[in-house]
Amino acid sequence: MPVRGGHVAVPGPRGSGTARPAPEAGRTRTWVPGGPLDLGLVLGPLRRGPADPTFRAAPDGSVWRATRTPAGPGTLRVALRGGAAQAEAWGPGRDWLLDQLPSLLGAFDEPEAFEPRHRLVALTRHRRPGLRLTRTGLVMESLIPSILEQKVTTDEAYRAWRLLVRKYGEPAPGPVPGPMHVMPAARTWALVPSWEWHRAGVDNKRASAILRAVRVAARLEEGAGMAPEEARRRLEVVPGVGPWTSAETVQRSHGAADAVTVGDLHLPGIVGYALAGDRDADDAVMLSLLEPYAGQRHRAARLILLSGRTPPRRVPRMPRGDIGRL
After folding, report:
1. Which residues, other chains included, contact 110 with Cβ-Cβ below 8 Å and sequence gap of 6+?
2. What is the set of domains in the chain, with CATH numbers?
3. 86: number of Cβ within 10 Å
């Protein structure tokens, strides 16, 4: 792994007799994937809305991520150049981020094991050969925003995540292309006052679930080294974390190809409509339709969503409720 970095001595204040370290340099790594790779498809699920303070897609095609690693905060920039993924990282977590780069970009995913059983799925897979399932190796950074997304519109959840991370997170290290923040540490989440949850539009049920989760953050983070189903069982011990939330978490933290999301407002109807013309499908129908993809049901659902074949809207959108304005 090519590495560069370090400090250089520059003159300190006049008469100080000391040297001041230069701004921290990044460290780099180049990794060549074993097949097609689409950064947007692979890393897109980690983005919580267009203004996510932890994620930025730059005009040059690079993707920036600010995250809290086991070694501390870190910022990662990844770009594809000539078939290779070129990465640079900053902060205390930079080495950890570079070590995890292949996992993040789907090196341990097995898209070749997927066998399409429907024409729509086969066509979408052919058109999207760069889809791989990311594996971040980090549980809490996916669990907390997933809890925020429970039973509310995505806009409301994205707003809450944005406001809380900007206020209680810390500036991302490195020469970021705009304001970016690392999400708060578990202890900081635990100290967020009740009125700030309210201002962010987070009801007591979701705030309480997050507070319970951060109290056992170390135990939950250990789940990154477990099989997805085992990690889900550990997550669901926390009151307020159910099958929907655990699936949404391990899809990102573990690259769990079979962790299909149940309990979702829209997914059963989308899968039912795409595969059987049934826009009123429920979870049971969805799971039945996805049964031929056992072991790869989440990937099948991703491909169905990417196909763009969704039922025409015939009911009002889910009402938006901003408790922060009450």
Report:
1. 257
2. 27-307 (1.10.340.30)
3. 17
